[in-house]
Amino acid sequence: MDVILSGLSLLHEPDEIIEIRSIDPKPVISGYFRADSPAIAKELSRYPNRTFYQTMNRVKSACYAREQHERLVERPHETTTDGDIAGYQWLLIDADPVRPSGVSASREEKEAARRVAGMTMKKLMAMGFSEPIVADSGNGYHLLFHIHASPKEKQVLADFLAVLDMWFSTEQVKIDTAVFNPARITKLYGTIATKGASTPERPHRRSGIIRKPEKVEATSMTLIRNIAAERQKAVSPQENPRQRGAASSFDLDQFLSDHHIEVIKKIPISTGTKYQLAECPFDSSHKHGDAAVFAYSNGSYGFHCFHNSCAGYHWHEFREKVDPTAYANSPYTVHQAVSTSVPSRAKPGGAEGSVPAVKTGQPRMLDFAEIPNYDRSKIVVIRSRFQALDAKIGGFNKGEMTVWSGGNASGKSTLVSQIGLAAVTEGFKVAMFSGEMTASRVREWVLLQAAGPDFVMQDPLNQNHYCLKPGIEEKLDAMLTGKLSIYDNDFGTDWEVVTNTIYDWVKKNEASVVIIDNLMALDIPTGSMDKYDMQTRIVKRFSAMAKELNVHVHFICHPRKTEAFPRKGDISGTADITNAADNVLMVHRVNADFMMRYKTVYPKLVIEPDVSTVIEVMKNRDLGIVDEIIKLYFDRRSRTMSDVKGLPPQHAWTEKIEQMTMPGFTEVDDPDLPKEWR
Ligand SMILES: [Zn+2]
């Protein structure tokens, strides 16, 4: 009984009204209680062998006055409906093994569900989701992500689950797509799950919460909406010009075999069929089913690859990559017809389908209704791999610029080089300028960070120094070569030379990330122009480079004064710099000075003793995030920071290990998964 009550206190506020219900076998039994009510234990003890469920979301307080007030009633007149819910607070993901209806799961079936739930959890957390509560449902596994959302978001959650179904469901285990409605009930964790007869092969099991985060934090609805939007990106044959009037003539199996695309497995999902591909057509290192094609029962198609560098690729991009002649004209004609969903809309100026790089002609003023919608699906986001930061700002968008600042020894260089490694891990190429260190010193630094705490050891010759374990360096070199290049300071640090060199390299190598560490290390000629005007010019040049080459530029600027707790106005000499930036992130080292001062700006913030560093989000243009604090923990050995205490960042190296040992996202034996999962 204690297990049930502690589970309730994890899912609900003490004064929250909840409904507890049992539905099978008849009669239905229901009661409304305060979540901390002592009556719950007493009432449940009257029905020791029944499976009970609970409402997950916030029940309107008026329901408390129903006949089953603080007691369980058989055959109640009313139970909770969607209209009785004030808001969502839990998003339930239910990984349930496929089995004959009305029986409990076998051990093998349950084991398969565990793997799917573990994979789902891991991938979502890697995308920035906060850690969920994990529960054993008796027959499968539940992930409960804390959210704040209005009941009006029902369709978003329905779409979200449909996308998870297509991403994660296997032949043996399905992600339940029906559990999105606000009044949805879940197991009252701790009660027994009694489906069918209890046999040795298919026993009745007790449900229970098996894992919970140290602190329950809400997952941003932006992340959920972005995934839900994938649902809309399936393309129906009518939208494909070549198939107009001949929708049935396109044969996916034929298409894949004609173009030598190897399919590992075909998996039926609730909305159609998933074709897991042996290799992603956009990057041959994305293997083992990380990429998949979807054939929906309504005749439309989709494509998805789990790697962030492929996030912008959907069916059209896939088909065109595999068959460049698929769309006779420019692909843009197709994209626009799909993304604006108003095909009759006239395009101002220019020949149909042509998109000139610089616009000429008229009109220069756009009528409001003619302005194309902002298409979020075309933004490529490069994650920082700090879950807390990615959850807040989504990651770093290509075509944008982030300005980093912070006092001396605040850790900003450490952080930004780690962000560069994260980008490599995500499959992007990175160009770096580090004005205060030689390339060899940067290399030493980056190697330690890339190795991580598990692959470094104390230097036998110098107790204060850490070095790589034997054999690691070669592996890291193999991984980073071609992906990370550092400007050679021996060629001088004249700002124009540095800028032009990086520009050319990025263009030639199709890189996606530029790191400039830092503005003051660039040699700026002191001529007719004011120093601050020159700095402004340089920053604007990098901002323009970000847009032109579609890269993300990370730019480090020292604050003017180096005392503790610098503010936005202290960054360099001019407000133009922060105005030009899409993100402004201030890095603070948590020292005595910081501890004395931060309360003046963040009176409610609590800094735990182990926190070494914080990132303060001062500006985020895309989502309008401001005044958010990300707490970080420093690992001295590998010089890495992590936003999860005791857990080193997931960097390129572990990813590599993962790829070697992990046969794709349907069959996991994953060393990164928490112990309980293995
Ligand atoms: Zn891919």
Work out the helix count. Answer: 17
Give the CATH H-level superfamily of the largest domain.
P-loop containing nucleotide triphosphate hydrolases
Cα-to-Cα separation, first versus last residue: 28 Å
Secondary structure category: alpha+beta
Averaged pLDDT: 82
CATH topology of the largest domain: Rossmann fold
CATH architecture of the largest domain: 3-Layer(aba) Sandwich
Largest sheet report: 9 strands, mixed
What ligands are attached or bound here? zinc ion
| Beta strand % | 15-25%
Low-confidence stretches: 238-247, 329-357, 652-678
Task: Please estimate the helix content.
Answer: 25-40%
How many strand units? Answer: 32
Task: Write down the domain tally.
Answer: 3
User: What is the C-level CATH assignment of the largest domain?
Assistant: Alpha Beta
Give the overall silhouette.
globular
Strand arrangement across the biggest beta sheet: 26-23-27-28-22-29-30-31-32
